[in-house]
Amino acid sequence: MRFAALALSLVLALPLVAQTGFSTHTYAAPVVQHLIPVDVNGDGFPDLVTYGGPVDVYLNDGHGGMLPRKYIGVFAAYAAVAQFAGDALPEIATCHINSGNTASTISIYINHGSGNFSLAGSAPLDGICTSLSVGDVDGDGKLDVVTTSYAHDASSNITGTAITTFFSNGLGSLNRSVTQANPDVSAQNDPTNIFDCHLSSATGGDYEQAGRLDLVLIGACQSGATNAGTIFYGTSDKAGHYSLKEIKEDERGFDYFPPYTADVNGDGTRDVVLIDYQSGPHNSWSNSLDFLENHLNGQWTLKQVFTESSYAASYLSAVFSGAGADFINGGSWEAVAGFTQSPDCCTQDTPGIAILTQDTSGNYVESQRWTAKAYPYATVAADFNKDGKPDIATVQVNSSANTASLVLYLNSGAPACPAPSSPGVHLCSPVAGNTYTSPVNVRATGKAASGSVVRLELWVDGKKYGNFSGSTMNANALLGSGSHRIVVVEDDSTGGHLNSTPAYITVN
């Protein structure tokens, strides 16, 4: 994690205001940096597990709220939740960095229900843990643990890195380990300008839907006056070794916060959430939430979602965290980003949460933002109250006071559809190429070329479906099965009209 010493800023794209469509619920929390939404007690409601500090369990109260935290008895830099013991309840695997900062301990905590856990077994790890992933590595039906780590000398110079696989016995104990030393994450295309790369972090998942735990590995590099980074895909041989293939190299790092695996676009595959950064001369800075989208067969697309940048600034502007979900139930997933931002070089920064929708080209467009209590180091999405709409959970940390809060934003409706930047119509939903179930939610906002917007017209398959007064539309259209062409027309007070880009969709 790279943000502690930076002081940066950016002019706001939208004002920080109270959020629409979400209600806020705040709970006491220790200072932690990461959240895992997972059903711990088997009641069907997502609970929360924290790490990057004390490992705590917050049980869902069955209405989307959280009961007081339960500390399981360990501080962990990294953690994962999975069913190691083979019963119906998941266990927690942790990586604790030992005192002296030269070695780590990998542990598994057995779930006894009601948020109670006890230590089942531990194993030593040489070096400092930099990630922890869980999956069935060798195909024996038992979940294993894979870590990345580094070793350093007395001057804190890195002397080696490793991928270590801990094989489990299916009862919560780790039997044996296999180490792959110094995996090569060097830049493959431009090693002259991107150099001195070493393994910095990783995340794991069954990315190919092949019943195999593979890895996405992050390399930290140098590039002249700036930092740089690489991203590699590691294919498992099911024996504890990984063959590496480069996905991306760039003059920016990808380890500002550790990556994690999640579906970010609703296609059912496992993607990766990254926080990148680039620092350069004169205190220049750029920092983004990225989605590494998985297209299977080793094909990936890296998409920048939300960015902060600055030059010669005195206060912090940075993106800390993010997630993807279909917040507006429109069929196309949105993004949420946790950030802080200063409006100029010399004004105190303000932390916030931003919601971003996708336009017809698949680019993310900010639709709203609101002020957070403190820096949102962790941001995840899950349907905490089981009402069919994804909610947001964040850990917000006041680094100066060393205090934190767990803040939930329960989704009570769709956020506004932003107006287009130029005259016309921004059709937020439905999204072209997607498949929907009737009724189909149609949301759009118009901007007049002259005068003001009088109404928006909804046209389906060349026929007018209805008129909607004003510059915004939020309607549900009853459509039959098959293919449909959706167009929204803006009528202004001078008699002019402009059309949206058509959205061709399918209805089940």
N-C termini distance: 45 Å
Biggest pleated sheet: 6 strands, mixed
Anisotropy-based shape: globular
Q: What ranges have pLDDT less than 50 throughout 5 or more consecutive residues?
A: 1-18
Instruction: Tell me the count of domains.
Output: 2
CATH hierarchy class name of the largest domain:
Mainly Beta
Q: Kindly state the number of beta strands.
A: 37
CATH superfamily of the largest domain, called what? Integrin alpha, N-terminal
Helix content: under 10%
* Nearest-integer average pLDDT: 91
Return the CATH architecture of the largest domain. 7 Propeller
Count of helical regions: 0
Q: What is the C-alpha radius of gyration, as a whole number of Å?
A: 24 Å
Structural class: mainly beta
CATH topology of the largest domain: Methylamine Dehydrogenase, Chain H
Strand content: over 45%
Describe what this molecule looks like in 3D:
The protein folds into two domains: 23-410, Methylamine Dehydrogenase, Chain H, CATH 2.130.10; 424-507, Immunoglobulin-like. It has no helices and 37 strands. The protein has strands at 22-29, 34-38, 47-51, 53-58, 70-76, 78-82, 91-97, 103-111, 117-126, 128-135, 144-152, 158-168, 174-181, 195-205, 214-223, 226-236, 242-250, 253-262, 271-280, 284-294, 300-310, 318-325, 334-341, 350-358, 364-371, 375-382, 391-398, 403-411, 424-429, 435-436, 440-447, 453-460, 463-469, 472-477, 482-492, 497-499, 503-507. The two termini are 45 Å apart. Residues 1-18 have low confidence and may be disordered.
